[in-house]
Every structure is written in C-alpha cells, then in structure tokens.
C-alpha cells in the first residue's frame, strides 16, 4: 500500500518503510558539479580517505565552464586534483542533470546529487534527491545517506495540450496553484494521459520544476517510453521497475486538465507569481535565454527554430541559446537548428548551465528584463537584484525574442 | 543574547550567498558576502550570537551549502523561521547551525533574543515574551559536535545511523 516514494525507499533501505520515518538508504549513484564538489572536499577528507565506489560517482562540470574567472578556475583546479587522487570521472559535456539522464540514470535508482534540481532525473522513474555538499561527501565516502521518507502528492494530468502550450506551462500552472512551498518535503508523483504521452524531455521539464515548489523528489512512473530511452545503458537489462500500490495513501491530490491551459509565465521575483502570458504581453525585454536543465533539450530548440526560422530577433534584444548537453548540441548542429538560430541573431553558447545562475554568459544589469526558459526567477539570480526575470516555455521565449516584448506564442504557430 | 534580523517569506539561498560571489569554500570569506546584495549592511553590522528571523520556506532554492556556512561564520546563533526548505535544513544539521521552527511574527527587527537549549525556550527580552520551541535531538547533537562530518570523524558512521534511528 505504498506510494512510489515509499516503495522505492523500502527497496533501498532493505525493509518496509513509510512516510515520516528516517532511513539510512543505499545510494545507487552520486553526483556533484564544479561548485558543490569543491565544498565537499573538506568534509570528505574529515571522514574518509577513499571513495566508496568510483564507478558510481560522476562529476559533471557545468555551472561555469570554461572557467570565466580566477575564482572559478581555482575551484575547478581543486576539484580536478581531488578527482585525480580518487580516480573520479569529470565530464564537461553539459548540465549535470541532462548528462545523468542521457548516460546513467535508470528507473528505480536512488540518485543523490549535490544540486537542487536533481529531482529532474525522476522523469526517468528514478528516486532522485538534491542534497548539500556535506551530504554528498558522506555519499561519496559511504555509499549511503539518511533520508526522511516523504509524504507523496499525486498529480494527475489529463487531456491534450493545445498548439503552443507545453509541459512547462503545465508545471508553471501547478506552481502558481500550490505555491513555492506547496510540495515542501514531499514526493511529487505524476500520472494521467497527458503525462504518458509526453516525451522523456518534457517529463524532465516537470520533475525539474518540482524543486521550485519544495519537493524532495518528483517521479514519473517508468513506462515503455522510459525503457526505450534507457535501452543499452549499463544495467538497463536488469531494471526491476517499482510502482505505487493501488491503495497508496497521498497527502494531497491535484488534477489538471491540460486541454484548457494557456501559455503561462512566472513573473518577478517568485516562482508562484504565475500569470497567463496574455496578461503580461507587451512588457519590454532586453534578453531572452533558451536553455538550462529545464528546457535546453533538442525538442526545446526545435520549438524555438519553428517560431524563429527565417525571421530576425527584434532590435535591442539579446537571444542566448545554450544546448543542455553536447548530445543536444550535436543533434541540433547536424539537423541545422543551430545555424538557423544563429541566422536569426542568436548567440549560441557551449553546453552547460549558461546564464541561469548569473555567473557568466549573459549576466543582467540594473533594470534589465529577461525572459528565460530556466527554473528560477529569484531576485538577483541572473545578475543585478534590480533586474527582472520571467520564466516561460521555449515557445513563449522565442516569440518574445522576435517582438522584443512578452508575446503569446500561439499566433506564431498557427 | 543577540539581536533579531528580520526577513520575509521564501528567503532563497541566492539572496544569502549569490552565485557571483560564492566561489570559495572559505568560511571567513563567505561571512563577508552574506546577504551582500540583498541587505549589504548585514555582513558589516551582524554581531556574534545575533538571530536571523524569517517567515515561510526559509532557505529555498539552490542547494548551496555556502548559505549555511556563511550564516554560521557570520556569527549567527540561530535561524528562526516558520518553515525551512528541505536542503537548507539538511545543511543546517550537517554544519551544526541551529535552525528553530517557530511562527516568529511576534519578533520584530532588533529585538533582543536568547535561546535556552535546556528549557527549549526562546526568550524575547525586548517584548518580555517567551516562545516554546522544539529542536530535534539530531540537530542539537550536530550543533554541539560542530557538524555531521566532525561527528562522524569522532564517533563513526554507525553512531550517525543510531542517532537517526533514535529520532524516528
């Protein structure tokens, strides 16, 4: 009678557990990036000499690569030294969650990542939790960690998306409805026909955004599409998928008919300040960012291309496109998407987090306005605390880049 | 005894240690950038044993442990909030920074506060009020031991397992 989270934690703890209990669980994979690893070295050295299993640890460099300044270069140097000592693998191929999802994660894995957007990997049916640097140091050292088994929230999405409306709009609508702490400490579990018919990338858009409503993890139960996506990767043939029981107990259930949904936008400076794009249409923008672990995948860049190809970015608008990974970069290079976007006037950067966290590649100055496809519109997140960040789908972002003012993408797609 | 620094709801870790400033693991350096853009006077004027008082969902957003390290290194005795974001709360446990869950609407900017661990009470000397608090044993232990890594170093991982088993 367990939820997906309870059943997965029971498997990982080796005994039957339920919401509210503390467990020490075996971790299948641990990940930290070019910032959080640096902060993990000191606590790691206090408790261990050697990592628990180097084949189950990955260090993707993504937050600011190549190093944009001396401070970042020194942190990255310290991590490279640590990785050499421990025999750990550093990859510089894109955003950590995209790399983990493209190469490593399998349904029913317990993944811990020293990054708050680790729930992204739950789009593949994994139990993936964000933790801090000391936590990841413990996981690196022991291969296990303590958790409080979360209460679960069941989200059911039915219906078919209208033209110009996407998973991002659905999850923004959810954030607007339940608030920035609406899923605090919970596992968010997704069901319904609108979710089953979604691509893996779109599912990851939703699980990614659940970090912004406080969730510990967010999970889409694995299906044929998931198994097809992970086929051929190490361990895939041995996956025994875990599901929720019929009579599982949920702390809250939310239903959403996506057919009626319009394009949504989160306005400054809170994730739950969500409006229909129409309501804020006409607001002037300086920068448009298409990328990140939320919406930097091939399908996202294709949507942008469809809206932008053959046109010109509005005068005075900077369009920054950052593919989420090298795989995405390659796909979009070979199918002509990147050159189409460059022709329109986009600056295409190397795969990584890009300007999302305000460290490089498009920092905002005082008074500037950005429409971004990423996940955080916190005050000061992308630069000056006097800048303004709106969050929307790649379609809304692309349509906005064309006009220079916030624009509902539906007109461009008819 | 320390003074209250009052904040609102949803104080995120980007506000505490912004991404452009937190490229260091050095606590003393991090203390200097605590709320650097959001409330620049904080790092200059905060005194040892002051309290940071927030509303709901304190510490939301990025997992960056620097937020907790910066507050601790700045001398903050405790963060008091109606609720805490999950990773921030874990980071408090891991670093031994006292986090007190309390609806703190009655506390005003600059109020003189004192936390009594033995009695599990928070006293507001300015308003002559007393609030009942309930800090979990796990957190009290790591605050006393100077964080989880230090606890494991001294007592072993098995002791940590036991600590959590007893708190279930």
Describe the model.
The complex is a heterodimer of chains A (about 425) and B (about 170). With about 425 residues, chain A is of the alpha/beta class. Chain A folds into 2 domains: about 250 residues, Aconitase, domain 3 (2-Layer Sandwich), CATH 3.30.499; about 150 residues, Aconitase, domain 3 (2-Layer Sandwich). Chain A is built from 16 helices and 18 strands. Chain A has a 5-stranded parallel sheet with strand order 4-3-2-5-6, with helices on both faces. Chain A has a 5-stranded parallel sheet with strand order 16-15-14-17-18. The model of chain A has no long low-confidence stretch (mean pLDDT about 95). With about 170 residues, chain B is of the alpha/beta class. Chain B folds into 2 domains: about 130 residues, Alpha-Beta Barrel (Aconitase, domain 4), CATH 3.20.19.10; about 30 residues, no CATH class. In chain B, about 35% of the residues lie in helices and about 15% in strands. Chain B is built from 8 helices and 7 strands; from the N terminus they run E-H-H-H-E-H-E-H-E-E-E-E-H-H-H. A 7-stranded mixed sheet of chain B has the order 4-3-2-1-5-6-7. In chain B, a hairpin with a 4-residue loop joins strand 5 and strand 6. In chain B, helix 7 crosses helix 8. In chain B, about 50% of the residues are buried. The mean pLDDT of chain B is about 95. At the A-B interface, helix 2, helix 3 and helix 5 of A face helix 4, helix 5, helix 7 and helix 8 of B.
Whole-number average pLDDT of chain A? 97
Domain count of chain A: the total is 2
**Share of residues in helices of chain B:** 25-40%
Which strand order do you get reading across the main beta sheet of chain A? 4-3-2-5-6
Number of domains of chain B: 2
| Extended strand count of chain A | 18
Assembly state of the chains shown: heterodimer
The assigned CATH architecture of the largest domain in chain A is 2-Layer Sandwich
- Give the CATH H-level superfamily of the largest domain in chain A: Aconitase, domain 3
Top-tier CATH class of the largest domain in chain B: Alpha Beta
Q: How is the main sheet of chain B built?
A: 7 strands, mixed
């Amino acid at each position: 009678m367990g939820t997906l989270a309870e059943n997965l934690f029971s498997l990982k703890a080796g005994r039957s557990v339920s919401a509210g209990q503390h467990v020490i669980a075996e971790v299948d994979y641990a990940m930290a990036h070019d910032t959080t690893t640096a902060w993990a070295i000191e606590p790691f050295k206090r408790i261990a000499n050697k990592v628990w299993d180097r084949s189950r640890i990955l260090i993707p460099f993504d937050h600011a690569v190549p190093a944009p300044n001396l401070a970042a270069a020194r942190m990255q140097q310290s991590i490279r030294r640590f990785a050499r000592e421990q025999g750990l693998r550093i990859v510089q191929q894109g955003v950590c969650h995209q790399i983990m999802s493209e190469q490593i994660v399998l349904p029913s894995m317990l993944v811990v990542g020293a990054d708050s957007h680790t729930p992204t990997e739950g789009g593949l049916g994994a139990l993936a939790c964000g933790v801090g640097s000391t936590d990841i140091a413990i996981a690196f050292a022991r291969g296990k960690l303590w958790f409080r088994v979360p209460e679960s929230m069941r989200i059911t999405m039915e219906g078919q998306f209208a033209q110009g409306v996407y998973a991002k709009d659905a999850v923004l609508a959810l954030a607007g409805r339940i608030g920035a702490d609406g899923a605090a400490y919970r596992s968010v579990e997704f069901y319904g026909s609108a979710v089953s018919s979604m691509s893996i990338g779109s599912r990851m858009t939703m699980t990614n955004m659940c970090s912004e409503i406080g969730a510990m993890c967010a999970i889409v139960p694995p299906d044929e599409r998931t198994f097809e996506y992970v086929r051929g990767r190490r361990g895939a043939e041995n996956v025994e998928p875990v599901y929720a029981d019929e009579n599982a107990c949920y702390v809250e259930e939310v239903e959403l008919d996506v057919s009626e949904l319009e394009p949504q936008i989160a306005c400054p400076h809170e994730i739950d300040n969500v409006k229909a794009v129409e309501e804020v249409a006409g607001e002037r923008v300086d920068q448009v960012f298409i990328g990140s672990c939320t919406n930097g995948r091939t399908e996202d860049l294709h949507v942008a291309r469809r809206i932008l190809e053959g046109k010109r970015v509005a005068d005075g608008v900077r369009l920054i496109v950052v593919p989420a990974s090298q795989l995405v970069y390659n796909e979009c290079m070979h199918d002509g998407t990147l050159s189409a976007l460059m022709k329109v006037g986009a600056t295409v950067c190397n795969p990584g987090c890009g300007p999302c966290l305000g460290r490089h590649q498009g920092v905002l100055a005082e008074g500037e306005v950005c429409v971004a496809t990423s996940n955080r519109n916190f005050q000061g997140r992308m630069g000056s605390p006097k800048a303004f960040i709106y969050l929307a789908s790649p379609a809304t972002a692309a349509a906005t880049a064309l006009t220079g003012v916030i624009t509902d993408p539906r007109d461009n797609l008819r | 005894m320390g003074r209250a620094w009052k904040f609102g709801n949803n104080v995120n870790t980007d506000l505490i240690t912004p991404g452009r400033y937190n490229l260091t693991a050095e606590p003393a350096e991090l203390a200097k950038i605590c709320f650097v853009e959001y409330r620049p006077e904080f790092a200059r004027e905060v005194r040892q044993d002051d309290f940071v008082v927030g509303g709901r969902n304190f510490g939301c957003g990025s997992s960056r442990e620097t937020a907790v390290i910066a507050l601790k290194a700045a001398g903050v005795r405790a963060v008091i909030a109606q609720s805490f974001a999950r990773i921030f709360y874990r980071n408090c446990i891991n670093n031994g920074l006292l986090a007190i869950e309390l609806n703190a609407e009655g506390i005003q900017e600059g109020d003189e506060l004192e936390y009594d661990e033995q009695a599990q009470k928070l006293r507001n000397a300015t308003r002559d009020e007393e609030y009942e608090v309930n800090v979990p044993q796990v957190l009290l232990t790591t605050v006393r031991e100077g964080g989880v890594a230090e606890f494991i170093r001294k007592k072993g991982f098995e002791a940590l397992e036991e600590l959590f088993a007893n708190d279930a």
